[in-house]
Amino acid sequence: MSWKNQSGGPWGGGPRGPWGSGPQSSGPNPPDLEDLIRRSQDRLRTVLPGGFGNTKVIVAIVAIAIVVWLLSGFYRVQPDEQGVVLRFGKFVATSNPGLNYHLPYPIETVLTPKVTRVNRIDIGIRSGDDPRRGTAMRDVPEESLMLTGDENIVDVDFAVFWMVKPAAAGSAEDIGAANYLFNVQNPEGTIKAVAESAMREVVGRTNIQPILTGARQTIEAAVHELMQRTLDSYQSGILITQVQMQKVDPPQQVIDAFRDVQAARADAERLQNEAQAYANRVVPEARGEASRVTQGAQGYKERAIIEAQGQSARFLSVLTEYEKAPDVTRQRLYLETIERVFGGMDKIIIDPSADRGTGVVPYLPLGGLDRRPAAPGQTK
After folding, report:
1. Which of 96, 150, 328, 343 is most exposed, with the fewest beta carbons within 10 Å of its own?
2. How far is residue 143 from each of residues 51, 154, 268, measured CA to CA in Å?
3. Distance from C-alpha of 97 to C-alpha of 79, rounded to nearest angstrom
4. What single-letter DSSP state applies at residue 81?
5. With contact defined as beta carbons under 8 Å apart, do 176 and 167 qualify?
6. Is residue 124 part of a domain?
7. H or E element, residue 136
8. C-beta of residue 175 within 8 angstroms of C-beta of residue 167
9. Which stretch of 2-11, 65-74, 357-366 has the lowest confidence by average pLDDT?
10. What is the pLDDT of residues 211-224, one digit of tens each?
11. Residues 232, 269: one domain?
């Protein structure tokens, strides 16, 4: 149809169609489509006086379209994101946060996953809405019940914190974000399955007693290492930042019996500690007493030997002097013996032969002769 055709259509003006007169209707006539087309042509000639036959206009339109197309390659990466550039759907490079450029669509496209946000996945528990208490946690026993190394069952609830591995800008080798986008279809499901498998493996080679008491940090570290090694083997581009055990208890059906066992073990440990403390106190005391008796006996032995040696030497010296002058030595021994025997007595012995039988005045206070004057300040 020519742009300047004003006849209203190939069949002439009026409501006639190719088969004669159109249908008769008593209501309002529908809008004339050919009239609308004609008005649109008139408005287009107003904008483009030369019509589409003007070469300059066509070139200008094409140039503007090309410029707009080229400008569409600019894109912005947020601070918590990293750009992953795809060329015809194939990964070629990464880009840092800020304003960047890639070849316009459909040559290149860009994806911007968040690489600094730390995500959390709970295993064994789920959060739900309680109309009365708000958010509530519910157990998922099919995820948390595990078999220990000593064939006991334990209920383990834990959380895994993860993030996307950041890659160096423009690098085609360190492609953590690209691996996260293209190698893993369901990242959260994969992390959850790997975490549950790793926890079951670590718990399966550990006895229940360390799991319930002081081995949590060791188990968390072992699960963390095993998860990261497994995810790296998948080339998932996922970084595990932390594994945190929330609750470790026996199954609900036997938790009372386990608590009784734990209480009995605590009592046994307490009694053992008390016995050890008593032994630590008594044994040193006994050893000290034994050492004191031994040292006393050794001192008595040395003292007795020295005294015997001294008496023997004294006897030998007296014997030597006695052999030189027996009478003098005998008299000296007698006097020394009398002095040693009567030296501490308060009796006075008078030889009746010394005063020719006259005797001694009976009332003479002989006991006072030996008294010495008392020192000042002492009672007589």
Report:
1. 343
2. 72, 11, 34
3. 5
4. B
5. yes
6. yes
7. strand 134-139
8. yes
9. 2-11
10. 887 788 899 999 99
11. no
**Same-domain check for residues 224 and 304:** no
First to last CA, the chain: 164
DSSP label at 370? G
* Residue 256: domain span: 252-342
Report the candidate in 242, 247, 259 with the shortest Cα–Cα distance to residue 137. 247
CA atoms within 13 A on the CB side of 1: 12
β-sheet bridge partners, residue 248: 156
Q: Is the dihedral of CA 254, 259, 262, 264 positive or negative?
A: negative
Q: Do 118 and 241 form a contact (C-beta atoms < 8 A)?
A: yes
pTM, rounded to two decimals:
0.51
**Residue 96 forms beta bridges with which residues?**
none
Q: What percent of the chain has pLDDT over 70?
A: 73
**Whether the bond into 106 is cis, omega within 30 of 0:** yes
Q: State residue 273's pLDDT score.
A: 92
- Joined tokens for residue 339: 């002095």
Residue 187, domain CATH: 3.30.479.30
